Amino acid sequence: MSFFDAVCHAFATLATGGFSTRDASIGAYNSAYIDWVITFFMFMAGVNFSLHYYALRGRIGTYFRNEEFRFYLLITLGVTATLMWLNHGSVYDSALENLRYSAFQTAAILTTTGFATADYELWAVLAQYLLVFMMFIGGCAGSTGGGMKVARILLLLKHGLAQLFRLIHPRTVRLVKLGHKAVDPDVMQAILGFFALFMGVFVAASFLLAASGMDLVSAGAAVIATLGNIGPGLGSVGPTDNYAHVPGFGKGILILCMLLGRLELFTVMVLFLPSFWRK
User: Fold this and answer.
1) Which of 28, 40, 187, 263 has the most CB atoms lying inside 10 A of its own CB?
2) Do 268 and 259 form a contact (C-beta atoms < 8 A)?
């Protein structure tokens, strides 16, 4: 890789931007070394940057004491292992090659970087939909990644489990905690509101794209790929395709999705409330 390409890809990796100087993205280099370097730094870019600050000050153990990081690491390892299992034999015969491509695409999609080294539309259908599901999650809070953020997903899961526990034990007091700290109920309400709004925007934008003539898979994948700030999706907007064919109306919807996703919905959606403009 030339020095110019190295600098461009370093910026695109740490900012989880995903833009490459090559049409075939990172796959153009066909280098295991380059793939592993970028995989590592994509993963690190998806981590809360305050943890990097503590690590640089010598407190490396802070990573593993952070519950969100542990959950993020678990998702990364779990998805990589699942993709390897789904792709073994049918796509890749070599275990190292399977690990290389599975780990790269897991990091690229989960951190919302969007780089590509493989056409994952040739993978098993379950593998494709697993990657789409990762688009909803995104990186950790305080990272450069997009999506709903790992912390929100973790708290939503904990809240759901707490509600199930209360159904069995109605008189119990069960607090939702992140780490060793109880989460304020107002914060939990904000997370639930964000999740509902995120899914509402996803459904509405998917319907609008489908109405513009796109097939259902491409419409849904395009919306989550832009709402999560990833880039490549499935169908006609897959890793080897682009958005040039999307109608003008559809492009307008996707532009709005990109803005909503990057500014985390509330910041933009509040502008559409009449009460915001009243003095």
Assistant:
1) 28
2) yes
Chain Cα centroid distance, residue 261: 11
CA 218 and chain centroid, separation: 18
What are the distances in angstroms from CA 170 to CA 33, 163, 165, 166? 55, 9, 8, 5
Max CA distance (Å), the chain: 66
Question: What's the CA gap between 166 and 1, in Å, rounded?
Answer: 56
Cα–Cα distance measured from residue 108 to residue 127, given in angstroms and rounded to the nearest whole number: 14
Measured N-to-C along each axis, helices 67-87 and 125-137 cross at an angle, to the nearest 10 degrees, of 160
Which among 45, 39, 49, 106 is positioned nearest to 74, based on CA atoms? 106
**pTM to 2 decimal places:** 0.92
At 161-216, the pLDDT tens digits run: 989 988 888 888 888 898 888 999 899 999 999 999 999 999 999 999 999 999 99
The pLDDT tens digits of the residues spanning 138-151 come to 999 999 999 999 99
- Cα–Cα distance measured from residue 106 to residue 81, given in angstroms and rounded to the nearest whole number: 10
- 14: amino acid identity, one letter: L
Nearest 10 degrees: Cα torsion 101, 74, 115, 229: 150
Of the candidates 140, 138, 141, the residue with the CA atom closest to the CA atom of residue 110: 138
